[in-house]
Amino acid sequence: MTVFILVTLIFAMPRALPGDPLRSFTDEYTVLSPEARDELVKVHGLDGSLVEQYRHYLLRLVRGDLGESIALSQPVSRLMRTHLPWTLLLTGSALFLSTIIGFRTGVTAAWRRGSTRDRVFQVVSTGLRAIPEYAVATFLVISLGVVVRLFPISGGFTPFKESASLAFKLADTLWHLMLPLTALTLGLVGTKFLMVRNMTIVVLGQDFMLLARAKGLPQEVQKRHHAGRSALVPYLNLVGAQIGIAVGGGIFVQEVFGYPGLGGLMVAAVNSLDYPVIEACFLVLSLLVLTTNLVVDLVGTLVDPRARAT
Questions:
Q1: Cα of 92 vs its chain's centroid, Å
Q2: Distance CA 221, CA 215 (A)
Q3: How buried is 120 (Cβ within 10 angstroms: 0-12 exposed, 13-18 middle, 19+ buried)?
Q4: How crowded is residue 163: how many other Cβ atoms within 10 Å of its Cβ?
């Protein structure tokens, strides 16, 4: 039922936007003749009622057919194969890094609460939480891309290097990934840090932590295996909730850096009212969020002893 409602909303959303989906074929110098316009309307299945278009859309999805781009005149599935891996690389890496960094720094700050390190972490995390990802991305472009010229400011790879070695291509991809990855990671880590810190402080006051200290367990064992593990389950719930935020923030970051992911493709499709591309981008990203949330829930079940016992 969730997927059906999602598919219906994705179909209706672009058609609620004002404008003409065939406007990409015209400009100030080009005007479509009525015959040419009618032919394009038929080719792209826009001649039927909304009910008929919706039925054809569902039938296409059942066959695994995402349709053909109106503006680019090529199969949408080819566009997905080209752009989706870049989005997965950026978003997946940012989620992984922000999850690890947020958890480790949060537990450490709670363990040393009131210290200079704790106060610095709190100030930095609160600031990062308040600044949108695209603002961080713009700052990184100007500072490290334009002023210092340490990293490239656009693209995902250096063009005209198709014959280069695999090692060069990997290094080149990571080099182009650094700035967008940093911007998205910084945008996600602030909330994670504050949540883990607060949860760990609550855990430190519970009876089992007093018992662990009374037993004389090493501080590292108390911090990692007792306090950290107890904060892990609610932390995983936060990670699941942040997946949608990461995907949304990643769209803006990709657009700022001209990164070859789904972000730029989606923005261009919205601007040109390219219905099939808009539908495919939102469908793929929505299914990605649902699938990742399911994986996070399964991991949370595995690490929670109470869930394993039921």
A1: 7
A2: 12
A3: exposed
A4: 6
Q: Which residues pair with 30 in a beta bridge?
A: 27
DSSP label of 159: T
Burial grade of 93 (CB within 10 A; 0-12, 13-18, 19 or more): middle
Identify whether the C-beta of residue 207 lies closer than 8 Å to the C-beta of residue 250. Answer: no
From 94, 147, 141, 112, select the one nearest 261 (Cα to Cα).
Answer: 94
Residue 269: give the domain boundaries.
76-309
Instruction: Name residue 277's beta-bridge partners.
Output: none
Write the CATH number for 105. 1.10.3720.10
Cα 200 to chain centroid distance, Å, stands at 27
Task: State how far the alpha carbon of 139 is from the alpha carbons of 72, 90, 278, in Å.
Answer: 32, 18, 29
pLDDT at 184 over 80: yes
- Alpha carbon distances (Å) from 39 to 25, 35, 42, 141, 179: 12, 6, 5, 44, 45
Please indicate, yes or no, if residue 97 is contained in any of the structural domains: yes
Residue 263: inside a domain? yes
pLDDT band at 223, cuts 50/70/90?
A: low
Q: What is the pTM (predicted TM-score) of this model?
A: 0.85
What is each CA distance from 91 to 29, 139, 147, 259, in whole angstroms?
40, 19, 26, 12
Write b or e for each residue in 165-179: b if 16 or more Cβ atoms lie within 10 A of its Cβ, otherwise e. eeeeeeebeeebbeb
Residue found by looking up tokens 């649902």 in the block = 290
Is 255 part of a structural domain of the chain? yes
Amino acid at 163: S
Please report, in angstroms and rounded to a whole number, the separation of the first and last CA atoms in the chain.
Answer: 27
- What total number of domains does the chain contain? 1
Tell me the pLDDT tens digit for each residue of 94-120.
999 998 998 888 888 887 888 888 899
Residue 66 lies in a domain: no
